[in-house]
Amino acid sequence: xxxxxxxxxxxxxxxxxxxxxxxxxxxxxxxxxxxxxxxxxxxxxxxxxxxxxxxxxxxxxxxxxxxxxxxxxxxxxxxxxxxxxxxxxxxxxxxxxxxxxxxxxxxxxxxxxxxxxxxxxxxxxxxxxxxxxxxxxxxxxxxxxxxxxxxxxxxxxxxxxxxxxxxxxxxxxxxxxxxxxxxxxxxxxxxxxxxxxxxxxxxxxxxxxxxxxxxxxxxxxxxxxxxxxxxxxxxxxxxxxxxxxxxxxxxxxxxxxxxxxxxxxxxxxxxxxxxxxxxxxxxxxxxxxxxxxxxxxxxxxxxxxxxxxxxxxxxxxxxxxxxxxxxxxxxxxxxxxxxxxxxxxxxxxxxxxxxxxxxxxxxxxxxxxxxxxxxxxxxxxxxxxxxxxxxxxxxxxxxxxxxxxxxxxxxxxxxxxxxxxxxxxx
Amino acid sequence: xxxxxxxxxxxxxxxxxxxxxxxxxxxxxxxxxxxxxxxxxxxxxxxxxxxxxxxxxxxxxxxxxxxxxxxxxxxxxxxxxxxxxxxxxxxxxxxxxxxxxxxxxxxxxxxxxxxxxxxxxxxxxxxxxxxxxxxxxxxxxxxxxxxxxxxxxxxxxxxxxxxxxxxxxxxxxxxxxxxxxxxxxxxxxxxxxxxxxxxxxxxxxxxxxxxxxxxxxxxxxxxxxxxxxxxxxxxxxxxxxxxxxxxxxxxxxxxxxxxxxxxxxxxxxxxxxxxxxxxxxxxxxxxxxxxxxxxxxxxxxxxxxxxxxxxxxxxxxxxxxxxxxxxxxxxxxxxxxxxxxxxxxxxxxxxxxxxxxxxxxxxxxxxxxxxxxxxxxxxxxxxxxxxxxxxxxxxxxxxxxxxxxxxxxxxxxxxxxxxxxxxxxxxxxxxxxxxxxxxxxxxxxxxxxxxxxxxxxxxxxxxxxxxxxxxxxxxxxxxxxxxxxxxxxxxxxxxxxxxxxxxxxxxxxxxxxxxxxxxxxxxxxxxxxxxxxxxxxxxxxxxxxxxxxxxxxxxxxxxxxxxxxxxxxxxxxxxxxxxxxxxxxxxxxxxxxxxxxxxxxxxxxxxxxxxxxxxxxxxxxxxxxxxxxxxxxxxxxxxxxxxxxxxxxxxxxxxxxxxxxxxxxxxxxxxxxxxxxxxxx
Lengths: 426, 681
Fold this sequence. Notes:
- By secondary structure, chain A is α+β, with helices and mostly antiparallel strands.
- Helix content of chain A is 38%, strand content 14%.
- The radius of gyration of chain A is 28 Å and the shape is elongated.
- Chain B is built from 18 helices and 6 strands.
């Protein structure tokens, strides 16, 4: 009998212990999307409140759970027990009841206070963070770029995040990087280190959610509504984010990245984003690819600064070849083996990142463009697709004026040329 | 016009003369076998049917869960497509909540409530049958979406014009059990035919109409139980003498009638958006997607307590029985149930902490959510108080009830963690949440319900399940469950989002996902073993005495299986837990001089509840088929409405019927003698 109880307790203890052990390894706590490895004040505050709840719960767990185990063992039926029934009306003991209720409420106050303080702290950029975070305090436009408007210089950096099925578009209206200005940034957010940034969230179709676990907890992108949060990252590096609200077929493929740069580097990056694409060499494969880009109607959705300016619906491709990921950050353009090795040796851990690997990028481009076009069988059903339901080449849903149903198919030769062209878009 | 009850009492319904109803049809009173089950109005048989269907859907939902876990066992797997995965988790959640846990709770309500309050049936026996069949047909409609999906995948629809015109071809719902608009709704402007563009296909329409039908079933059943508990109690069975399970049934019924109207309205609005060009949730036409979330969760959160309160009631019956001691703090347990039910309507926005409510509502809902932990904690303290000073006998139901307390406590603790909104912003929509609510709903509710099955099975079938098999099954369930869902706490904190059909290697999620999958299979084997054990017992198990556990409530005073009239003479009780004291010498139950030679009035069986409910079958197929663009599908809906109306009308005019049944004389009033309590294993 007793051994049965012990073994039952063991049943609970084993996974718990395993969990605790897993939690003890540093590597397990600092994985790419860990919420337990905060790298900025917002995530830190959320982590601190979380740990308050953990301690409270652990104490209660061992207290109440321990009492329960004690009661079950202590009051178990034994052979030879008195068998007369224990007849009493179960009124309980008012003193015990009231005492326990009071204790429960008291223990909740322990987490209620930090919770309330954190709710207001994480809601918007704190006033005390503005002086050091306003653009004038850290942003120096690169040589040749126009100076900031005085009113703008007193603001903190604002970034508009626009969610779509299934990718994110980032715009920096104060710095002239917007979709309207043909300079938007898809899927790879770039922010300066050490300053507060205000994020405005909008959605153009369904609900999405913006989540970079190491920098801040999530806030939803609600269509028809303007949400916001503020973030700050205190360590440079490459961070991983993901859409956290179910948004349809390819929800799992809606990822994004966040690159945290030193403020000076950030200014250079802004300047680079405003550069147009370089002309392609005449007679090259890339030039054939550029022609295909126009002929195969890629141009209808995608902007390529300096080459094609009509597209506004799909991701801006002007700097495609400089991005470390593709297809809503699902396909990684880096050498993954080198990346893993770096993560294990670099002091930055999972925030360190190798550069884009040209061969991987080309393979990804061919896979992505190729599968999206030909992945629908004769009946139009999706087969093996990098992102099922994506709008590239298969445009039945928004079958409205000007955007007829298109279904492009590519030969291997054409894909190669197209990829060569896209590789020139640094 | 005949007055059916004037006939002389008969010993068995098979001795009845063939009897025509006021409509001129023969009443199905004398049927046996299948027709008897289809036309029954006996709360016990209806309870058994609820239970059988619930177990079937538990297994279907379990298979869906295992498919999900198989897909996630390793990174970058392509065992199922993204679409199929989304359909699997949608149907898994919907099935487990609406077709598994709720009907299994309803099975207990049906079987136990009249027995526990000393009544001969529920207040409205035919309405009860209607609830059952509405549930059965609603569940069928929901799952028939899979048949359409498979037909679509097999290409059977290829030749049809309506099929070729479809933009979205998900036939099984792929919108999640929460069905957030606008993903489940529409965008843009409606065309001349009042059709708006949508994000999902007819799967969502199946889901909408299926849930709507199930809601009607639940509402009808709840009104029935409220009337039964308020009006049909035996003499002396005052409210504060009710068994706690009956109390929890009452609260659950109130929660259902207060919570389901919200989802009913929301579903109608969504249906109008999708099928008739309305714009309730369409942001491009000024609709508010967040309105759906408010309507859904003001239903959805009380729904959690609708699932959990019956299990708490069951545990509150099992613990005193096997502790040999009255429930500690009975009034406080009852009132904390009421407080939980009340506060359950005041915390819905904690499901929406990340939707940008603003700090004031976020703070209010965070504090209210913390507050609801207090009455829940009170229950746990009182259960412990019940064990304290008792003599704890270990039996399968007791082991499962103790497992319930433990697992539910863990789920409650992670719930307290969620109540802190800033912490929740990292946990929301991650695997941490999956861990949390599976500890509540599986570790809590399922263990409680399994405990209830093992506890009352001897009463239902008069046969005792094999204890060894029961222990093995319970052990597998508890082990597998913790192995499957324990690691998900870590996975969520490591940033793995829910509802994603795959993930890359390199995020540190691989190992724990594999372990979770192994755990899920162990859990699956455990649940299957338990169910197989129970089904086998129902037919072949060892007969047992009428009071094998030394029970405390009135149902244990009856023979097993319970006769169709329940109580040969109506009991009059003098105290709470009257049967315990009565068995042990104090005379706490007396019997009224009804029944006997004069007979007991039994209600007539009827086809009409099932006929009326069958209207839902036509409506349930018609609405999605209209949405698919199948020609003339609207007539199917109209047919369904006519069948429903005709069924109800015929039901009203066929006359009440009824007959008198002879029962054993007062002298042999069934006061069971206490059997030897099973020795501690």
